[in-house]
């Protein structure tokens, strides 16, 4: 099951705003851009470059896994943010990505 539509970033304008005005939090395998959105819910977007993973099926699989992880933990994340998760080079194991995402969202006092 996917992340609900109200919790997804889908418009280019929203991604551009978050990239331009957001704060960056780095992890081992990914980094996150955070920007306040003035809405009662947090919205998420995932970016995985084809330079990181060549196969689109693998990129989409990772997006689905991370989206599912967010869906299960959405109630623990403070509302009102646009959050873009960007996967860096060397990230191939989903367990490491989930752990990194958990650490960043849990330890950064922004959220």
Molecular structure report:
The chain has one domain (7-107): 2-Layer Sandwich (Ribosomal Protein S5, domain 2). Helix content is 38%, strand content 21%. The protein has helices at residues 12-21, 56-73, 94-107, and strands at 23-26, 30-36, 43-47, 81-87. A hairpin with a 3-residue loop joins strand 1 and strand 2 (30-36). The longest helix has 18 residues, at 56-73. The model is unreliable at 107-111 (pLDDT under 50).
CATH topology: Ribosomal Protein S5, domain 2
Domain module count: 1
The strand count comes to: 4
How would a textbook summarize the main sheet?
Answer: 4 strands, mixed
What's the alpha carbon Rg, rounded to whole Å? 13 Å
The average pLDDT is 86
| General shape | globular
Q: SS-based structural class?
A: alpha+beta
Output the number of helix runs.
3
How would you write the strand order of the largest sheet? 1-2-4-3
Q: State the low-pLDDT regions, or none.
A: 107-111
Q: What's the level 1 CATH class?
A: Alpha Beta
The first-to-last residue Cα distance is 24 Å
Order of helices and strands: HEEEHEH
Provide the helix percentage. Answer: 25-40%
CATH architecture classification name: 2-Layer Sandwich
